[in-house]
Request: fold
Amino acid sequence: MSKEKKIKKRGYLQYIQKNAAGEYVYTGGYYPLQGGRSRSLLTRLFGFSVPAAACTAAAGVLPGDAMMNTFYVIIPYALAVCLTASVLWAAIRFAANEKPLREYVYKAAAVPIPRRAVASAIAAGLCVAGHVVFLCLHGSAHMWADAVSCALHAAALTLQLLGARAAAGAQWRFSAGKTITDNLG
Reply:
């Protein structure tokens, strides 16, 4: 494997080097949240993304006819599940790391949250549209389940958009790296 591919695959290693004492040190930059409001941001992120994930999961287990064999409902639902899981993963990674965030964690966790949340909201909106089209074309023996599923997708859409707004509104500033000794090896 070439050195260029290795750097792309494990790009964070460029910021971790050995010092004269043989200890590994982080030499990259940090991204502190301005105003020190990371706890408030985490509360909002989890407050929107966890209920959105619950709504998405609940919509999938209802016995509606639209979710049985309708590709224009199932495909957006599968996308919504994957994108919602992606938003949760980024929020968990953001929460699990020290504050201020290291540069590579910031780029991998904090930056993509708004885009992923908007993509998840779009997928939930496509689910709503698919349910409406199915109900208009075919009706349903389980009309209540399809209506509740549609409402849950609409709730997930709203929650993901609010989460994207909260994440996009966070004010980060770059600060040059200070050497911190890590117990990495």
